[in-house]
């Protein structure tokens, strides 16, 4: 029987039918008896073939699968509910690396801060006290003091001369007013301060200390800091954090210092020396000790403003050092901080 299908029922991709094709059931499995049945089986099998085929490429390089992660690379699961989760730590590490790459890329159409010939935008990296004043927002006179010029020394004894008496008349005048103890006696004609005047000056109220706005780490400032300077400054922040933990603390670490610490870490590369890695571990341990004091409530009564350091800032610094520089063993110390009863 000839196939009487209409043109609309034909598959357009197969072309227009010219030769007669047998009308057999779709599950026909017999041996074709004539050409029409053979064409039916050919067209049926052609519909099951892919439209596009690809020949094997003899020069193709096989895809290299990444090696399975080792036990050291797998982040340990969080034991305490307050510990950051492995997903959060992995996301932080990825975003920190992307932030560091984006920051190092050249940027166009960005105005550089105007500077004069003798102006310094940052203190000398060797001056620790000046950097504390700089981050605290103090005026330039405190973090960029003028350099002291050494006066040219004069010879006390001149060659070829000998003086047995003072040639300066002021010395003789001063000696005439000196008493037996060597102090200058007041003249009779000099006015003496009255007790009323003395009491007035002592009873004046003391002026309140000035309030400074902390200086935030801006991109224009961070571009002036290289890895060597960043590592040196991170040593200062470790020292200040340890001073903050002392009972009679002289310094108060705030969230601004934590932001400076985080941004300074972005200026440090992945591969550093053993001494620099030891310094980063000390920084993480300092923030672990600070976190322990915050969780124990020893600093709850001392919180004076919203800028005081909080546990989230500590976790940000600790997680960055542990994840980016692979210091996984520090999580054991973090678990001891969160679970002191398991020691």
UniProtKB/TrEMBL annotation:
Gene3D superfamilies, per the entry: 1.20.58.1070
Short name of any one Pfam family annotated for the protein: SIP1
GO biological process: spliceosomal snRNP assembly
InterPro entries: Gemin2/Brr1
Superkingdom of the organism of origin: Eukaryota
Compositional bias annotation for Low complexity: 195-205
Region (Disordered): 142-212
Gene Ontology CC terms, in alphabetical order: nucleus; SMN complex
Family to which the UniProt record says this protein belongs: Belongs to the gemin-2 family.
Protein's UniProt name: Uncharacterized protein
Biological classification of the source: Eukaryota, Fungi, Dikarya, Basidiomycota, Agaricomycotina
